[in-house]
Design brief:
The chain is an alpha/beta fold and 151 residues long. The chain contains 4 helices and 4 strands. Strands 1-2-3-4 form a 4-stranded parallel beta sheet, with helices on both faces. 28% of the residues are buried.
Length: 151
Amino acid sequence: MEAIDARLHELAAAGLGPDLTVLIGFSQGACLLAEHLVRAPRGYRGVVLLTGGYLGPEGEAKSATGTLPGTAVLLSSSVVDEWVPPSRVRETAELLRRMGADVTLRLHDAPEHGVSDEEVVAVRELLAATAVNPAPEPTARPPAPGWSCGQ
């Protein structure tokens, strides 16, 4: 938790406060990040938790004292993951919703403990949707005079 706080302080000192920050974690990183959100909530630009949920014994309900107003959160995990039970992912999604986050929960049946192509697409979509100054659409440029594909 201290490492997360330290990095967030560095980002804030560089002018990148929580409202400009998207946090991403996978597996243990997602679990630590979820726990950090519950213990020290701030209004982040976005959060991605891939195969992770808050820490604690299975079946233990958790509560939070703060809020995550408007924070876009993507939780994605496999229903057959042997490390993170889907019940914990669902509980985390529900808690973050109660905290005011805009939560998208995606459960899939991929057997591997990893990040799927579909999850990469979902992360890209969250990043695009939360971008402060989205990049302009690329425009086609004509080839330079004297150049052709056949040369």
